[in-house]
TrEMBL record, chain A:
Cofactor: pyridoxal 5'-phosphate
Function per UniProt: The beta subunit is responsible for the synthesis of L-tryptophan from indole and L-serine.
Keyword Amino-acid biosynthesis: yes
Annotated SUPFAM superfamilies: Tryptophan synthase beta subunit-like PLP-dependent enzymes (SSF53686)
Transmembrane regions listed in the UniProt entry: none
Annotated source species: Actinobacteria bacterium BACL15 MAG-120619-bin91
Name of this protein: Tryptophan synthase beta chain
EC number per UniProt: 4.2.1.20
Similarity section: Belongs to the TrpB family.
Residues where N6-(pyridoxal phosphate)lysine is found: 86
Subunit structure, as described in the record: Tetramer of two alpha and two beta chains.
TrEMBL record, chain B:
Name recorded for this polypeptide: Tryptophan synthase alpha chain
Role, per record: The alpha subunit is responsible for the aldol cleavage of indoleglycerol phosphate to indole and glyceraldehyde 3-phosphate.
Gene: trpA
Family: Belongs to the TrpA family.
Entry EC no(s): 4.2.1.20
A Pfam family reported for this protein in Swiss-Prot or TrEMBL: Trp_syntA
Subunit structure: Tetramer of two alpha and two beta chains.
């Protein structure tokens, strides 16, 4: 295995031997594609004509009044086709699937965004698609289940373990071990065994590359801080990556604090977890003294995951990025605030980054420019938000 | 030389295959597990794998998942796993632990290997540990003189088979098919092909697991494999039994049948 699979002591491959051949094949396919102008041009054209890239930047002036007067800029990944950043990775991996001659993709999903994006790419490219989703999540996100079915995908409710995202990943890996010859596992975040953390980052780094140019053009300088929510961490890595060499730019990941990290009912893996191995990679994990994974809790299904991408673990340990926890209530307050001040209903996941901006903006003062990855739109969350705010449906 | 090495040498001398049974620690209960181990040993099992129940068993099918959940709900921890290992080795059979990697890392790599040895264990099967991530573990197994047992699959290519088996001790665990644990009506033809490919690169004994549940299957595998591993079939009997007593009778009966099977293959 190449050293590219490790981020300091994190990353690597902890998987059944049955998958090594497929991971090697995928690593080679990805490396070849990244150096193939035809592949890159095909993907860029898809993004231009299908995803809707480049995504725009919106300055949130009224929202910024609540953030100590700092200027706040939103990178609008919510305007992508299917409503979130997830499509960037999905189109890239679906193209790779075709290159590898595989006809079937499987995917896991928590909130349903990655499942919907996967089903979309499968429909576009004529691939069979099976999405594993925790039974609990199929109830919480019934609308997205219907969307996936309308797109032609099969949705399999997972009844093992805690019946959420973690168990959906377990079930997808079991399917992959069994059907690896004709199936690609289209993993939706920067976790899992090598090459997934690197590959998924490569497909999302376009977010930061666009934003860096856009911010220079708009403000004449780099932003002071970049904020993004972190579950597995794909949208955060996507916007951080281009700025990692810019050491003056603070990179801030906002994890799901749930009821509060101190209550134990949270999904803030870096803030409240310890190094360990989950789903094929070494990173921070929410685990007990015996190495058993502990269930995570968050109002946001997309952040409700007891692991995190290994590159985030590394960026945390070397001090290049900082990670903070945002509780459910603070996230929902920011959700409401952005909706009412800017006319943009964000995903609840994204609302964690917005809540972080309200704090960081006050810390940095009115001279600061903050860039937030507005990773997804909140249409899927209307029911959850209506319940939270007591709006009758 | 571990007790497992001795058992594999003995069955080779007897021109038969070893019967290796798997049961998770703490299943069907703490005391039930000890009784099951005794029943298996009395029925003629040559070696026992004690499973470390884990919250995210990606290599296991529904039967072992259910057993692991029951065990974890009963509070099984690392100390219980080692105590169960001791129960097994005290019966006189060779015993190993089968565990996903994270519980080892969490417990402490060196301490885990030493606790295996201290409780009479011969080795550890690590189904999700790749050789690339094994440096610390292999050093620990050498210090504690236990067998590091790796799993190979039908999709493992020849050069990788050579690399993995060169790190392996005790026996090579050959997965009979591409898939997760569970009972199957037939044993995949991939198994014989994989065993011959392992023979071409290694002199180690080879045990075949995944999907084995009957005397006939054990017999057909024993024709070419050095060990036959049975797990889900025993667990299914324990899960479906009306009482613990009946479950123990059922696994004892199956183990006796399988013990005949591994002697009929050649």
């Amino acid at each position: 295995m190449s050293s590219a699979g490790r981020f300091g002591e994190y990353g690597g491959r902890f998987v059944p031997e049955a998958l090594i051949g497929a991971l090697n094949e995928l690593e080679i396919a990805h490396n070849t594609a990244q150096n193939d102008p035809l592949f890159l041009a095909e993907l860029a054209e898809l993004h231009r004509t299908y995803t809707g890239r480049p995504s725009i930047i919106t300055e949130a002036k009224r929202f910024a009044e609540y953030a100590g007067g700092a200027r706040i800029f939103l990178k609008r990944e919510d305007l992508n086709h299917t409503g979130s950043h997830k499509i960037n990775n999905v189109l890239g991996q679906a193209l790779l699937t075709k290159r590898m001659g595989k006809k079937r993709i499987i995917a896991e999903t928590g909130a349903g965004q990655h499942g919907v994006a996967s089903a979309t790419a499968a429909a576009l490219m004529g691939l069979d698609c099976v999405v594993y989703m925790g039974e609990e999540d199929t109830r919480r996100q019934a609308l997205n289940v219907a969307r996936m079915k309308l797109l032609g995908a099969e949705v399999v409710p997972v009844t093992s373990g805690s019946r959420t995202l973690k168990d959906a990943i377990n079930e997808a890996m079991r399917d992959w071990v069994t059907n690896v010859a004709d199936t690609h596992y289209l993993l939706g975040t920067v976790a899992g065994p090598h090459p997934f953390p690197t590959m998924v980052r490569d497909f999302h780094k376009v977010i930061g590359e666009e934003a860096r140019e856009q911010m220079l053009a708009l403000t004449g300088r780099l932003p002071d801080a970049i904020l993004a929510c972190v579950g597995g961490g794909s949208n955060a890595i996507g916007i951080f990556n281009a700025f990692i060499p810019d050491s003056a730019v603070r990179l801030i990941g906002l994890e799901a604090g749930g009821d509060g990290v101190e209550t134990g009912r949270h999904a803030a893996t870096i803030t409240g977890g310890t190094p360990g191995v989950l789903h094929g990679t070494r990173s921070y994990v929410l685990q007990d003294a015996n190495g058993q994974t502990v269930e995570s809790h968050s109002i946001s299904a997309g952040l409700d995951y007891p692991g995190v991408g290994p590159e985030h673990a590394y960026l945390h340990d070397i001090g290049r990025a900082e990670y903070r926890a945002i509780n459910d209530d603070a996230a929902m307050a920011a959700f409401s605030l952005l909706s009412k001040t800017e006319g943009i209903i964000p995903a609840i996941e994204t609302a964690h980054a917005l809540a972080g901006a309200l704090v960081v903006g006050r810390e940095l003062g009115p001279q600061a420019n903050l860039l937030i990855n507005l990773s997804g739109r909140g249409d899927k969350d209307v029911q959850t938000a209506a319940q939270y705010f007591g709006i009758p449906l | 030389m571990t007790q497992l090495d001795a058992v594999m040498a003995k069955v080779r001398a007897e021109n038969r295959a070893a019967l290796i049974a798997y049961i998770p620690a703490g299943f069907p209960s703490k005391q039930g597990c000890a009784k099951a181990i005794q029943a298996l040993a009395d029925a003629g099992v040559d070696a026992i794998e004690i499973g470390f129940p884990y919250s995210d068993p990606v290599m296991d099918g529904p039967i072992i998942q259910e057993a692991a959940e029951i065990s974890l709900k009963g509070g099984t921890n690392a100390a219980d796993v080692f105590a169960t290992l001791k129960v097994a080795t005290d019966t006189g059979v060779a015993a190993v632990v089968m565990t996903y990697w994270n519980p080892i890392e969490r417990y402490g790599v060196d301490q885990f290997a030493q606790s295996i040895a201290d409780n009479g264990g011969s080795g550890v099967i690590t189904p999700d540990l790749t050789i690339e991530e094994s440096d610390r573990w292999l050093a620990a197994t050498i210090r504690s003189q236990i067998n590091p047992i790796y799993v190979v699959a039908p999709s493992t290519n020849d050069s990788r088979l050579a690399a993995v088996t060169s790190k392996t001790g005790g026996f090579v665990y050959a997965a009979s098919l591409m898939g997760v644990t569970g009972t199957r009506t037939t044993v995949s033809s991939d198994a014989s092909n994989l065993v011959s490919r392992v023979r071409a690169v290694s002199n180690l004994p080879i045990s075949v697991g995944l999907g084995v549940s009957t005397r006939e299957q054990a017999k057909s595998l024993a024709a070419y494999a050095d060990g036959v591993i049975v797990g889900s079939a025993f667990i299914k009997l324990l899960l479906e039994a009306e009482s613990e007593e009946k479950g123990l009778d059922a696994i004892s009966h199956l183990a006796k049948e399988l013990a005949l099977g591994v002697r009929e293959g050649r």
